[in-house]
């Protein structure tokens, strides 16, 4: 009987989960799944290591009122009753914000929980869900070791200038700085880069994590030196429903002259903008690529234009560029986005091999391209499982 690590990634409307073997990194999870539709109509899906779907009534009767804590409790009951070839010996959580304090994964105790609760105002839409999941597990299994892995931690290596806003000093001193996110994804890519690039992995690399949320990270020696997201996960690139960087004067204008209150501005920036807002059709790149509507094409063009601009700015932070890595849903699967972004980067020495790009090959640059362009699938859950293995 092997030990298993329960990996949980609690988002605003979904909880992804997996059971990873506690020994032998790189081995397949015994189980993966997701509870989606939280707050509306919760649905459950799970697959075993063989890819077979596991039917269960675990959420029977759960409705829009079932919160993260209640759903994690039900999930745990189901997991504890099942036969997965081992017993759960630890839990690892994705936690969005680790503030300035946490620069790596940490074993959770009462003091850590207190520190994480103090960070809720910095990520009010995400942090409470991770904390609810941690508490729900602690209530049912108080002796189970739990580990927190932070989306911000990978960026704590950045130089001070990369972290500062040009705001009055007292605001920076109290923590209004650029934190950066998607750190678990960047950590994973940094770990596998040598397999793809050999010694060049320690050079000047930009990783483009293009998913529903999107950001980029500039790495030197596989450490973060700059990133496109800032104080919140709103900054930087255009995303599925988020605006990305915007002239802050627009926000003042909307409140002064259009009668929007803070909540309405928040909704506009977090869920009504981005690909969805510009196209008026969908936040899903697949829908936009399939659409003949010119607004869909304009949304894709703006997404790619903004991505090329952001990438160029990060190349300036790196003072050059050796490789680009595309990852996450759009980065891994959209040949069109990769083609349109790279077409704007020939001045940096990027030459795309379009046949390789269409085949979604691992290396999609030509052999004489000055910059290697790679497609590497990310795996945030594997990073959480690995951290739990190390700490326990
Ligand atoms: P993620 O947040 O990393 O799970 O990425 C989700 C997003 O990836 C979806 O909303 C789509 O926009 C995009 N995506 C997934 N598959 C494809 C595909 N085959 N082609 C284009 N975009 C895709």
TrEMBL record:
Keywords assigned: ATP-binding, Cytoplasm, Kinase, Magnesium, Metal-binding, Nucleotide-binding, Transferase
Pfam family, one: Acetate_kinase
Active site, renumbered: 151 (proton donor/acceptor)
Name used for this protein in its record: Acetate kinase
Catalytic activity: acetate + ATP = acetyl phosphate + ADP
Phylogenetic lineage: Bacteria, Pseudomonadati, Pseudomonadota, Alphaproteobacteria, Hyphomicrobiales
GO molecular function, one term: acetate kinase activity
Organism of provenance: Hoeflea poritis
Site entry (Transition state stabilizer), positions: 182, 242
Annotated localization: Cytoplasm
């Amino acid at each position: 009987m092997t030990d298993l690590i329960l990996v949980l990634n609690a988002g605003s409307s979904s909880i992804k989960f997996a059971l990873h073997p506690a020994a032998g990194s790189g081995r397949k999870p015994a189980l993966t799944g997701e509870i989606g539709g939280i707050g509306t109509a919760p649905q459950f899906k799970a697959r075993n290591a063989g890819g077979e779907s596991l039917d269960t009534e675990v959420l029977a009767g759960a409705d829009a009122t079932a919160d993260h804590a209640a759903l994690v409790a039900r999930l745990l009951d189901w997991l504890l009753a099942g036969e997965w070839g081992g017993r759960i010996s630890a839990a690892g959580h994705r936690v969005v914000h680790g503030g300035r304090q946490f620069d790596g994964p940490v074993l959770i105790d009462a003091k850590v929980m207190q520190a994480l609760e103090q960070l809720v105002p910095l990520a009010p839409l995400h942090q409470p869900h991770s904390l609810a999941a941690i508490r729900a597990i602690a209530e049912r299994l108080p002796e189970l070791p739990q580990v927190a892995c932070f989306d911000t931690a990978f960026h704590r290596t950045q130089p001070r200038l990369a972290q500062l806003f040009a705001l009055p000093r007292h605001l920076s001193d109290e923590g209004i700085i650029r934190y950066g996110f998607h750190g678990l994804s960047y950590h994973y890519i940094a770990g596998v880069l040598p397999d793809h690039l050999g010694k060049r992995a320690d050079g000047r690399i930009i990783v483009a994590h293009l998913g529903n949320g999107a950001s980029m990270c500039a790495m030197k020696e596989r450490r973060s030196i700059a990133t496109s997201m800032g104080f919140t996960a709103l900054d930087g690139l255009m995303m599925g429903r988020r605006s990305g960087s915007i002239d802050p004067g627009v926000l003042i204008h909307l409140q002064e002259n259009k009668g929007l209150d803070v909540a309405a501005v928040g909704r506009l920036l977090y869920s009504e903008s981005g690909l969805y807002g510009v196209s008026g059709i969908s936040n899903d790149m697949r829908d936009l690529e399939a659409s003949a509507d010119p607004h869909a094409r304009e949304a894709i063009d703006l997404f790619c234009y903004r991505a090329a601009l952001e990438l160029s700015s990060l190349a300036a932070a790196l003072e050059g560029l050796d490789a680009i890595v595309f990852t996450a849903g759009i980065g891994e699967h959209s040949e069109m986005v990769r083609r349109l972004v790279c077409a704007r980067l020939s001045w940096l020495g990027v030459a795309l091999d379009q046949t390789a790009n269409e085949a979604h090959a691992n290396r999609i640059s030509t052999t004489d391209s000055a910059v290697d362009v790679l497609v590497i699938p990310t795996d945030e859950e594997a990073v959480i499982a690995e951290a739990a293995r190390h700490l326990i």
